[in-house]
Structure formats: C-alpha cells, structure tokens
Amino acid sequence: MAMTRAELDRDALVAWLSEDDPARLATLWEQAEAVRQAHVGPSIRRRGLIEIGNVCERACLYCGLRASRAGVRRYRMTADEILEAAHASAALGYDTAVLQSGEDPAFDLDAMCGIVARIKAETPLAVTLSLGERSEGELTLLREAGADRYLLKLEASNPALFARIHPPAPGRAPTTRVPILHTLRRLGYMVGSGGMVGIPGQTWGDLADDLLAFAELGLDMVGIGPFIPHPETPLGRHAERLMAPMGEQVPASVDVAQRAVALTRLLLPAAHLPATTAIETLGGADARARGLARGANVVMHNMTPWAYRADYDIYPNPARLAAPGPSPAQSSARGASGPPESPSPGA
Ligand code: SAH
What we know:
Helix 2 crosses helix 11, helix 8 (204-217) packs parallel to helix 11 and helix 11 (254-267) packs across helix 12. Strands 6-5-4-3-2-1-7 form a seven-stranded parallel beta sheet. With 347 residues, it is of the alpha/beta class. Helices cover 42% and strands 12% of the residues. Strand 1 (45-53), helix 3 and strand 2 (96-101) form a beta-alpha-beta unit. It is globular. The structure holds S-adenosyl-L-homocysteine. S-adenosyl-L-homocysteine is lined by residues 62-63, 100, 102-103, 130, 132, 152-153, 155, 196, 225, 227-228, 230, 278, 314-315, 346.
C-alpha cells in the first residue's frame, strides 16, 4: 500500500527526502510507480518546449538570463518562428506546446494572444504558457485567446528564501507567486508550479514545505529539478557562503530531486510530473529514464530553433552547447527545430 498524504507529514517528508538506504528507497520508487500507473497510466506525455525569448527585466540570483548579465545575446522569436516550432511539435506527436520566456519589459500582449490563438486554430496542441509573473488582466486575455495551462514555479516556498533569490522587478514591490497561482486557477487554467532542490540556504524542512505547498495548491503539474549553479550569477558565484549550516543544507543532487518527485507523486497522485531537464543535465539520459520509472510521466523536448538555443542560458547545459551552429545548410537539413531528444533547460 502506498503512503497517503496523511502519513506524509513534514517530519516523514524530511526523513524520506534525506533517506539514502537503497532498500528503503526501492520501496519509495515502487510506491510512486504504482500510484503513477493507477492515476495517470503508463504513457509518457511529450511536450514541445519553445523558448520564445530570453529578454528579462528580473534579477533572479539563480538564473543566467537575469537582466544585469551582459554577454548574453538577447532574442525574441517572431510569431512565424513560434508557429513553425509549434507545427513541428505537433508533427512529432507531442500533445502540448510550452511557450517559455523571461519577463520581457516590452511584452506585447496583443501579439502573444494572436500567437496563442493561431496555435489553437492551426494545430491540435494544448498551449502552456510560462512567461513569468504577468498581471491578472494579461492572464485573463491570454486565457480568452485559448491558453490552456500556465507554469509558474514557486522555486522556493519559504518566503524568506524566495525573497532572497528573487528580487522585485525594477520600481515594484516584492512579489510572491502563490496569489498568482490562485488567480490562474480562478481563470480556468490548468496550473503548474514546482521548485528547485538544493538552492543555497535551503534546508530539509524548506524542501518538505515545498512539497506540502504543492499538495495544498492542488497543482495539475509540478516540475522539480536540482539547482544548477551558473557561474555568471550571484548564487553560482557565492553558493558556498550562502549554504545553510552543516547537516541542514539540501544538496543539489539528482538523487534528492528524484525523491522529491516520487514523494510529490504520492501527495498529488494525478498530477503531471516531468522528468526535468535539470535532472537530465546533471544525471544524463539514464537519470531521465530512472525518473520515468519513479513517478514522473512527462518529458519536455526542446523545440527552440538552433539559432537561439545557446542563448537561452538559464543554467549551464553541455547538451545545449553541443547544438549545431546556426548555419543555413544545417537548419534546412534538420528543419527549424532540433531533434526531439535534445535536453531543454527550461523543463
Ligand atoms: N521566467 C519565467 C520562466 C522561465 S525560467 C519564470 O521565472 O517563471 C524556467 C525555470 O528554470 C525556472 O522556473 C527555474 O525553476 C529553472 N531554473 C532557472 N535557473 C536555474 C538554475 N540555476 N538551476 C536550476 N534550475 C533553474
């Protein structure tokens, strides 16, 4: 019998998250797999991830796209480029286009509504948006244009930790993401969130609270991946001195991230849980495959055109750097988008 939400209180979650006995963990993987089979079935959901732009006005301490970072070539995909990547996703049999970007200060709501409406009209895809913290008015119009789902990660549910790694937008008050998640639900979106495992300063109790927050929010989708230090960011450069005291700091490891995914499966049996790219980036294709046998049921395939792939530099990802250059011969030979097995940084 699988452990229930009532049994998985904060102490139990801390114990499981920090468990490293392989025999005991085997029972966790079995339970997560059984619950996944019973509630979302055996099939893997495949999403096409289109990283539509990397212009961002935020200063998140973990993210390589933060506004003040020089030396990253900023881009915005055109409507036609986004449509082409969506059609390519549909042709590969994916069920959803996930449109992800930074928080673009020149965000064009009309244009984005038009893009969503065109994807819905021209393809059978569901549309997931992951455009950061947008206003209720914007989210309302995007929903009316046909957007089905929205992905906004809590990143860290501990308000003090989140505030530390996520400064407010220029000239604005600090934000928290929970109210936006409630707004999304009220507007009829399917709601996705998630977080990072092993953020410098994150304790085992913080991570347990993340999982309890996901359950409390009744999320439809939860993406959990290890924090990956980016050398061009404050968290990447100063990770050592921001760590929680010995024994309390959660390591940013594939193992802990997979325990968190498996526990989330037990807490939210019917949720869609990706075997995230951050897990694959650190652990390789094997880790992704293991994740899909330990409670995860979704894979995000990077469909961003090669011309932009390397510029969506959220965190270092060798697979992305190995992408072929943007020469016209290569892009016409391969189509506008990369091969479906390419890891994507945003998942
Ligand atoms: N700008 C939007 C969406 C994109 S960011 C937003 O903030 O919601 C995509 C995801 O990449 C983030 O939600 C975060 O969980 C993850 N990410 C960013 N930097 C990371 C890092 N250094 N290590 C691991 N994951 C990271």
